[in-house]
Write a structure and sequence with these properties.
Blueprint lengths: L7 H23 L4 H16 L9 H18 L15 H12 L3 H12 L4 H8 L3 H18 L1
Helix pairs in contact: 1-2, 1-3, 2-3, 3-6, 5-7
Amino acid sequence: MPHRPVSPRSQAQTILSRLLPALRRYATLMAGGSFEIADRIVSDCVVGVTSEWSTAVPTIEDTRLALLKEMHRRFCEGPITFVTADSSFAPDSSDRSNTFRRLNRLAPEDRSILLLLRFERLATYEVSQVTGLAMKEIAGRVSTAELAVLQDA
């Protein structure tokens, strides 16, 4: 029985379904715990990035970096209102609310770098691709951001 080729649409759906949980996590942390803002940003970015695809679907890594790059751009350059965490976010919401408050005190660019490196576990060169910053600058910014978050604790 011959192997049936996978359609580009099916391939894209598979890639996106694998990426969505991490994209939502990053967006939720960047949006201060607001699922509404996070879901809107993720949805807009997926539509924007996938609309640029022709018949060929990029690899999962290329797709991941393209989506994170677009999300980073929107969070750092766009007029997004950041909110504090919803009290219904989790049973231990006071701890999470404090985490969101500390993260929200960081500049969006520094918050993004910290989250991409420490939560999403991107390599420094990948963060450089997403942010457009030099790797040395990323190292300095993440150290400063970590100290700021820890000092607020």
